[in-house]
Design a protein that fits this description.
By secondary structure, the protein is of the alpha+beta class. The protein is about 50% helix and about 15% strand.
Length: about 325
């Protein structure tokens, strides 16, 4: 997004934006149930990273109170940066605001990087933030990089909310899904589904009864290698019945009445915590159930860990 960075704003403009951002963020934190729920889930995700990193459990209440203040301050700063980018923009293309939310996060990240000269960590600072960071670093070793990552991620979190609010103010809406024989069982196939704050899946293959999604770290981590995959298959009641009748593995057993069945295979890179893997699976299954008329009892899920992925090709 093109911005007029050369323009020097007067104090009145800056104070007006500061007032508006404060009012908006207070409304989100106090009255916006969806925002509050998502923020708490995101905070808990990073808290677990800290607890894993410091190999222990500090006084949870005191630690979480300080951490909550810390990330709320960062989120506000990020919101301000997002609002500033939009206010200074020579033009804000409508298509940049109406793309699905997963893609919007990438647009916002690029805009913030450009408009902060790729220096988000050093720009998001205040006396209060420095004091909390100093206390954390004095008490726990080797958490500097994690604190920097938290700064980046929550700054973008706040900036994304600024863009969403701007979209609503302009009376714009996310573009609807294109009509296609490709349904998008797990999620809309023209978007990215964030399975946690640092990982997303993108659809790479699909037809009327199957989908393949690949999983990657979000760009704020500076890594783009594949870390997982999701394969979904849907079988009709008649197909399930035929499978039961024909395949040897089912011979001689007692089987319940055939019904439509959904099979989801999830492969994840080695090293993820069990809780993390379960949370990812829950997110995928929940997204599927919200988009389709199936019961949870009809969905069969398996999770496997993988050391590496290899692309095999037959030599001629």
């Amino acid at each position: 997004m093109s911005t007029n960075n050369g323009a020097i704003e007067n104090e009145t403009t800056v104070n007006s934006r500061l007032h508006e951002c404060t009012k908006k963020m207070m409304a989100h934190f106090n009255d916006d149930r969806k925002f509050i729920s998502d923020f708490i889930k995101t905070m808990n995700f990073y808290l677990e990273q800290f607890y894993t990193k410091i190999q222990g459990r500090p006084n949870r209440k005191a630690f979480e109170e300080s951490f909550s203040m810390y990330i709320q301050d960062i989120t506000f700063n990020g919101y301000y940066i997002g609002k500033e980018i939009l206010d200074k923009a020579e033009s804000v293309p409508e298509e940049a605001l109406t793309i699905p939310t997963g893609q919007l996060k990438n647009v916002v990240y690029d805009d913030v990087k450009v408009n902060t000269n790729n220096n988000i960590v050093n720009l998001i600072t205040s006396e209060e933030l420095q004091e909390i960071e100093g206390n954390f670093k004095n008490e726990y070793e080797n958490i500097g990089n994690l604190l920097d990552q938290v700064k980046i991620d929550f700054a973008i979190y706040g900036a994304v909310q600024a863009y969403i609010d701007y979209r609503e103010e302009k009376g714009l809406f996310i573009v609807p899904e294109k009509k296609s024989t490709i349904k998008g069982f797990i999620y809309r196939v023209d978007d990215l589904l964030f399975v946690d704050p640092q990982k997303f899946i993108a659809c790479t293959m699909a037809n009327q009864n199957s989908e393949t999604w690949e999983m990657f770290h979000w760009r704020t981590l500076g890594m783009n290698e594949k870390i997982g995959s999701v394969h979904l298959y849907i079988y009709s009641k008649d197909e399930v019945q035929e499978i039961t009748d024909v395949l040897a593995v089912y011979h001689g057993g007692d089987h319940k009445k055939a019904e439509d069945k959904v099979v989801i295979h999830i492969q994840l890179r080695e090293g993820m915590r069990e809780q993390e893997m379960s949370s990812i699976a829950d997110k995928i299954v929940q997204s599927f159930l919200e988009r389709n008329e199936y019961l949870q009892s009809q969905v069969e899920v398996s999770i496997a860990t993988v050391k590496n992925w290899y692309e095999y090709s037959m030599e001629e």
